[in-house]
Specification:
mainly beta, 7 strands
C-alpha cells in the first residue's frame, strides 16, 4: 500500500508558457505514479497540481522522474520508500 509522501517538486518544461515554473516546491504525492494515469500532487502553497497521463517513470533512490506529454517532473522524496 502506498502512503502519501512528502517531496520537493521540480518541473522541467521546454518552452511551455502555460505552466508555472516549479523548482523544489514542497508538496505531497498522494498516489504512486503509474504509466497511463494522471498524477495528482498537493503543493504546500495550497494548490493541487494534476499532470497529463504519465508516459514514462524512473526511480533513482530518493528521486522519481516522471515524464508526461509536456513536462518532466522530478520528485525528491523526503525519505526512501
Amino acid at each position: 500500500m502506498f502512503k502519501p509522501l512528502r517531496a520537493l517538486v521540480t518541473r522541467d518544461s521546454e518552452d511551455d508558457v502555460q505552466h508555472e515554473s516549479l523548482h523544489e516546491v514542497p508538496g505531497i504525492l498522494t498516489t504512486e505514479p503509474e504509466v497511463g494515469v494522471q498524477l495528482q500532487v498537493f503543493l504546500d502553497n495550497g494548490t493541487m497540481m494534476r499532470t497529463s497521463a504519465v508516459q514514462h517513470l524512473e526511480r533513482h533512490g530518493r528521486e522519481l522522474v516522471v515524464d508526461t506529454a509536456n513536462s518532466r517532473y522530478r520528485f525528491t522524496l523526503a525519505h526512501a520508500a
